Every structure is written in structure tokens, then in C-alpha cells.
């Protein structure tokens, strides 16, 4: 747990003097250095851990220092390449008259992090209108990407297939989205559903655009909650949400969020127990913190797209247990429940029904396929 607490404390784009002092105190007797670099990388925090520990004046074991410095340099180089490719894509889209918004890490690395390399990213994610998704994917082919187009005339529910470009020895993946929500998600958020003006940011010599303040916070919170159905809550997602809220504290319409996006405030109130929110944010935003929920740093491993082979490898009982009995923290995030609400109904009735909705059709389809395969034999 001590290692997780150190990582969680570093889950922010910047540490002020108070946070840095608290971190230095935490590390005064810290000895669990073995494996911390790998854990940081798994959470997407390798570069952030390196710079925050350095700012705190921490004397690192030589091996750990080399590992973290290597992660910092590797992500700085990778993000430099991805930023160049992103600029080329946006230039091609602008020339073709395709409006595109840059999503998640590709935008946040330039909006809230002191340097882009501090925010590791996988794919470059872009949002376009559904009518432009096919053309946007085709333009990637013109730029040298291997960019599969869907068969037939029907587009996938959320995004086009991942496009890949190998450049400077790095495979750069791009996903063109026309909806910010997953196919199994009852919600939908397309370019036409956005409620805030796009947020401009500098991308080298050009101006790119990201989701507006309130839309960005909604997407970051929703993305974290939905993707934590099948994965641990990665601390880089926490860093994105908390750092965005703190960076644009005075620009965000908190009253509008209170009225229309209570999920954002509930998520922030729970994340306060993962990494402390700043006094400025707690004073400005209507975030109410109650008691600390159980389940901080507990992984939730069930996943709607989970493969039966994964069940066998992990153990059927273990996967079923995680799916059926998630942590209190996860339940309150997913069902938008503050710490004053009782969980009995959600844990024993609502959540099992939700898991049946998510898992049922996929398991039934797999069972029918197995039966069909055996009949053919």
C-alpha cells in the first residue's frame, strides 16, 4: 500500500510546495523501491514520478533512478514523434475541410502538463463527425498509415479500426472516433452533442482544438469509469482529471456542472481520497468530501469484452468475485453515489443486473458459437 500511496501522491501534472513537502515526508522512511518503476509505468506515471521525486529532493537507489530516467526520456521522445504525426494529420484534415478535436492524452499533454513527455500516451485519438469518419480514415492511408476501412456501408458504433504508422522506429496508432461512448454504453456523445466551445491549444506552429472545459471533464470522468469496468483505475486517468480541474479552475462553469454533470463532482469528491485535491479547487468547486470509501487501490478486473481464456487463466471464481463484488470506491463512481448514500440496493440488486446486461449477451453468444462448433463436428 505504501508504494501505491507514493504513486497516488504523484498523480498530478504539477505539485505545489505543499504537495512536494508532503511527498518528501512520505518518502523519508520509504523502502519499497523494488518494482516501483514497473508499477509507475503500468499506471502511466513513470515520467511524473521521476520529476516529482526529483523536485522533492529524494535520494533514489541508482537502479531506480536509471529506470525512471529511462522512462522519462523514452516517453519524451515518443511524444515528440506522436506530436509531429498529429500535426501532419490535422494539417491534412484542415486542408480537406474535416473538423477534428484532439482527445485525451494527445491534447492534455499540451494543455496541462509542463512538458508533453510527462503524459505518456498510447494511440492518438480524434473526434470527427460521423459523416466524416470514413473520409478521415481514408486520409490516413494517404499519409502512409495502414488504416483498415469497415466492410459494407455501416460504421462501427464508436470508432474506426486503429490505423498504424511506423515512423522513426515507433508504431504510432490513431483512432478516429465519431462517438465518445462505447457501443455497449447507453449514453452517446458525438460532435453534435458537445455543449462547450472547443478549447484551442498550441501544437508547434499550428493551433489544434480539444473538447471544451465542461465536455472535457465529463469525457475524462466517463472514460475512467467505463474503462475501469475491466481494468484497475490507472493513476494517469486520475492525474488528468484532477490536473485539468485545477489548471482551469477559474474557467470552468462549476454551477453548470453542478446542475447538469453531477457525475463530475461526485468523481472529484472520491478522487480526493486517492490524491488530495488542492485547497483552491475545494474552495472554488462545489465538491463535498465525506468519509473515505473502502477500496482505494483495489483493482476491479471484470470486463464486458473479457475472453473466456482470460477467465481460465485468472480463475473463474476470482473473475466472478471481482465482477460481482467490486470495491465501494468503484461502485460509488460507476453509479454516481456520494459517501452518504447506502450501497445495499446497488451492491445486491442494481449491480448484478448491470453485470448481466454487460456480460450476458457476450457469454450467450460465445456459448451458442461453441454449441454450433460442436454440432458441426
What's the SSE blueprint?
Elements: H1 2-9, H2 17-26, H3 36-42, H4 46-55, H5 62-96, E1 101-102, H6 104-111, E2 124-127, H7 130-142, E3 163-167, E4 170-177, E5 199-203, E6 206-210, H8 213-227, H9 235-247, H10 254-260, H11 262-271, H12 279-284, H13 308-314, H14 316-324, H15 328-334, H16 344-376
Parallel strand pairs: 2-4
Antiparallel strand pairs: 1-2, 3-4, 5-6
Helix pairs in contact: 4-5, 8-9
Describe this structure as you would to a colleague.
By secondary structure, the protein is an alpha+beta fold. The chain has helices at 2-9, 17-26, 36-42, 46-55, 62-96, 104-111, 130-142, 213-227, 235-247, 254-260, 262-271, 279-284, 308-314, 316-324, 328-334, 344-376; strands spanning 101-102, 124-127, 163-167, 170-177, 199-203, 206-210. The strands form two sheets. Strands 1-2-4-3 form a four-stranded mixed β-sheet. Helix 4 crosses helix 5 (62-96) and helix 8 packs antiparallel against helix 9 (235-247). The radius of gyration is 21 Å and the shape is globular.
Defining traits:
377 residues, Beta Polymerase, domain 2, two-stranded antiparallel ribbon, 16 helices
DSSP summary: helix tally:
16
How is the CATH topology named?
Beta Polymerase, domain 2
Radius of gyration: 21 Å
Structural class: alpha+beta
Number of strands: 6
Could you describe the largest sheet, including whether it forms a barrel?
4 strands, mixed
